[in-house]
Amino acid sequence: MNHRIRSGALVAGTLTLTLALSGCFASPGADAGTAGSGRVSLAMLQPPRSGLSPLSDDAFKLSRWSTAETLVVLDDAGDPLPALATDWEQTSKLTWRFSIREGVTFHDGSRLTAEAAANSLRAATGASPVPRILDGVDLRVEVDGGDVVLTTAAPDPLLPNRLSSPQLSILSEAAYASGTVNPVGTGTGPFKLTAVDGTSSATLERYDGYWGEPAAATGIDVDFVPDGTARAAALRTGTADIVEAVPAGQAASIDGNLINEVPMPRTNTLYLNTESGPFADPAVRAAAREAIDRAAIIASAYEGRADEAAGLLGPALPWTAGMRDGAGYREILAGRAEPARVDGVRISLGTFTDRAELPEVAVLVEQQLEEAGFVVEQDVREYQFIETDALEGAFDAFILSRATVLDSGDPVAYFAADFTCEGGFNISQLCQDTVDEAVAAASRTDAGDQRREAIMAAEAKILTTDAAIPLLHERVIQGEALNVTDAARDPRERLLVTGKTRVDAQR
């Protein structure tokens, strides 16, 4: 086996990807806090939880600010593109060789080398806990000349995709000097992180030594604003140029020209307990499936700002839609059980309060199930107090908002966790050989069209069991002042302010 990927005419893979994800609004509009200053004012949903360590979920902030970069980025279909690695080659079933881009400097002035890149990857493999993207992956990191050589204990066709995770960002050796990972002044992106004020704010400046096209904006001013009403007010009043995650309930009070809806790789799903209780019977699960009115749920709980689910994977993965029309997919789904007649069947239904819409979704689902003949008892708590019960099968049904592509940009890990016999997040308690075999086949397949076909076959196998009834695919509402140009609208939430983003002076 010898697969080689080359950068070809690609210059700055991150910039190429940004163009595919960006929108352009140059017309004048509502005042923005930094109009004409060359700086971008950003209001973000969540403050840092781990000191902006790239080995935590804070890594996605560093990526959204274009300050920390990875060896690889992903295109819209989830296939890998060059970034800090210019090309790569799979030299055996277990070994990959990545060539490191020349002429790149870190924000502290040191030079990107293969050893510097390897140092960041070794820090990730040795971290406790290990970054999610490497969970279960035994990775050995070596350097050979200008290349980083990676060896896995088992064949891993998804390794280049893994390296796109912001949790595997490449920082200078100085970032690791103190025992913790400090991203301030140690990235390679078009913006240099210069200051962090705890969980309150962060400041970035344009890095004039950037290896790609220099940033259009002179800097980024970040405020962490967990309160959704306050973020919406920042957009309405012009105190922020770009606002993350405007609550759906606030959107109606904002000029529609400032609102952009981005499909998310997140599905709200009704999980049914296949191991015990009424839903151990496939025909009773089928009755629940037939009872669901997705359009009514979206209209009420999401004010129309969501997409009906035709499957587990939604419009954030645009390649999925056409593949459901294939004869093979339809043939698999034809194996679903016929619905039973239900009269007075008692079930427990759980969900959690942490995502504001879910309690209302639960009320609507209860009403729809009761119209079909079920008797429903609800249990709604904070997620931290209900997760254990859900995973142990304490509920007959459970409503969950679930990320479907996780860190690699690939949904196989989600399928394996939620729907296989050994899955660690198997709320449905599903264990069927046909599903396990389909997920395993997808996992073994190389990235590209064949893997996507295998993924859709696995989705169809899962849906045939009615262990999970997909309800809707969420959208995130991103606010942008009308004088903002080229803010990224990224379903994976890896990009937001890029080198091309700018705030124009008002006219």
TrEMBL record:
<dbReference type="Pfam" id="PF00496">
    <property type="entry name" value="SBP_bac_5"/>
</dbReference>
<dbReference type="GO" id="GO:0042597">
    <property type="term" value="C:periplasmic space"/>
</dbReference>
<dbReference type="GO" id="GO:1904680">
    <property type="term" value="F:peptide transmembrane transporter activity"/>
</dbReference>
<dbReference type="InterPro" id="IPR000914">
    <property type="entry name" value="SBP_5_dom"/>
</dbReference>
<dbReference type="GO" id="GO:0015833">
    <property type="term" value="P:peptide transport"/>
</dbReference>
<protein>
    <submittedName>
        <fullName>ABC transporter substrate-binding protein</fullName>
    </submittedName>
</protein>
<feature type="domain" description="Solute-binding protein family 5">
    <location>
        <begin position="80"/>
        <end position="424"/>
    </location>
</feature>
<dbReference type="InterPro" id="IPR030678">
    <property type="entry name" value="Peptide/Ni-bd"/>
</dbReference>
<dbReference type="InterPro" id="IPR039424">
    <property type="entry name" value="SBP_5"/>
</dbReference>
<keyword id="KW-0732">Signal</keyword>
<dbReference type="GO" id="GO:0043190">
    <property type="term" value="C:ATP-binding cassette (ABC) transporter complex"/>
</dbReference>
<feature type="signal peptide">
    <location>
        <begin position="1"/>
        <end position="32"/>
    </location>
</feature>
